[in-house]
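User: Fold this; tokens only.

Assistant: Input:
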Amino acid sequence: MDRLVDMFLTNLASERGLSRNTIMAYSSDLEEFCRFLQGRGIHDLSAVSRDLILQYLEWLAPRISARSCGRRLATIRSFYKFLQRSFMVENNPASRIGFPKVLVPLPKVLSASQVTALLESPNTQIPLGQRDKAMLELLYAAGLRVSELTELELSQVHLDMGCLVVRGKGDKERLVPIGEWATRALQEYMEHGRRVLDGGGQCRKVFLNRDGKKLSRQGVWKILKHYALKVGIDVGLTPHMLRHSFATHLLENGVDLRSLQAMLGHADISTTQIYTHVAKARLKEIHERYHPRP
């Protein structure tokens, strides 16, 4: 089993170009599945039946969420597809098992006024404030994931064109416009604040901590929490909430779904469609609040 799992993971890395974190998730899922099989005396993957996989999912159900259970099933299904293509098994026992229903909560978003207050809160008279201003503007203007922000390199910034070349999941690149506000904030940081923080160092990342090293994901979270507290935002602000706000506000102002998908870097448009539900929910809330006969 271990050998076949290793072959599958190598295939994911070399042919599908998946990220290290994604491959680690596949590895963890299959390690757990193989332990389940071995605990029941099964050491041959071709002997696994549909009923046995259903037993595994039933065993998982009380331990993890429906979403996580669905991910385990997707991993097993992909694994057996690989084994079929490699002529190591005849059938895929997971192919006709339905995914558990998942109630997807609507993403939390900030109002336009909350975003404005947040973006205007850093003190741009000091280097760290210039960094924070540029960071907040980019998170909202480009809808970046926190990892895309912290890994952003100087060579990916094109201020003359007002855009970034963002390296997202699976190392896929996309071109994202950032608008005038974010461009000005980023330019000021690059020309002044970053030079002070860098201190002549060799770090090529755009956003640096006070020691001139790459700003960490945890650092971004702490900075967001600081400014949220400063302006009275008490909704548990996260970097991804700014990404959600970016997407929802664009939809509310008429952007088409395909353009939004490209800007967010979603591989599947179904992932982007969640924001249409958010926009509709917000419109309903506005109608109920302001219409004289709701």
